Amino acid sequence: MITRLPTWVWLGAASLAMIAGMVNVVGYLGFEHQAITHLTGTTSLLGAAIARGDTRSETHLLVIVLSFVGGAMLSGLIIQDSTLRLGRRYGVALAIESMLLFAAVPLFEHRQIAGAALAAVAIGLQNAMTATYSGTLVRTSHLTGMFTDLGMFLGHRLRGVPAEPRRLWLCLAIIGGFLAGGVVGGLLFPTFSYRTLYLPAALTGITGVAYAIYRHRRGPAGTLSP
């Protein structure tokens, strides 16, 4: 159960979900129409490509999967814990994510799959970085779990079973952030094309700086941990 939600958890979750939403829309609207932020569809497409012997698609899809996993692995190396807690090295992780997104733009513009790969590393890093809070999964790069939790909450309330309202609002914040990011990305892409990624790259860097300032002002590591 989520007993309380510090400001940095609320703002961080919504902001990172919005960033992921923008990145994913750019991937979908790009030359490969490739999802970036989640791997379920990508793995299904990989299976279909293997079945029909499409070596080119197999290679590209496998690169995306391995890049996402590599980003998550990088998060494990940097943060070394799966529980959200003030004092972790999130600022470093966010700075790396920002640089990866900036670097992906010219590669995308040259229609190289490496652009999508760098974006997948960035989002894999982000998704692993925001893993759990108060024993509850917090994922900012895809919404299946959030919608599942939302449905469970509504089902519990209909049955009169006690449900944690803060969990509901956290789900809605992440869903709303991701959707807003998709809308913004969809509006900007026709004009700015892959340069749209400069916005989530900048926002990631800003989020990292804001976290570092907040962490400094709140004192020792672990002060706001559940």
Would you tell me the structural class of the helices and strands? mainly alpha
> What is the name of the CATH class?
Mainly Alpha
Spatial separation of the terminal alpha carbons: 10 Å
Question: Based on CA inertia axes, which overall geometry fits?
Answer: globular
The SSE order reads HHHHHEEHHH
Mean pLDDT: 86
Which strand order spans the largest sheet, edge to edge or round the barrel? 1-2
**Helical coverage, percent range:** over 70%
Report the sheet-strand fraction: under 5%
Total number of helical segments? 8
Roughly how many Å is the radius of gyration? 18 Å
The CATH topology is Growth Hormone, Chain: A
- How many E-type strands? 2
- Domain module tally: 1
Low-confidence stretches: 221-226
CATH structural architecture: Up-down Bundle
Largest sheet: 2 strands, antiparallel
Protein name: YoaK family protein
Keywords: Membrane, Transmembrane, Transmembrane helix
Transmembrane segments: 7-31, 61-79, 91-108, 114-133, 168-191, 197-214
List the defining traits of the structure above:
226 residues, mainly alpha, Growth Hormone, Chain: A, two-stranded antiparallel ribbon, 8 helices, 2% strand, disordered C terminus, membrane
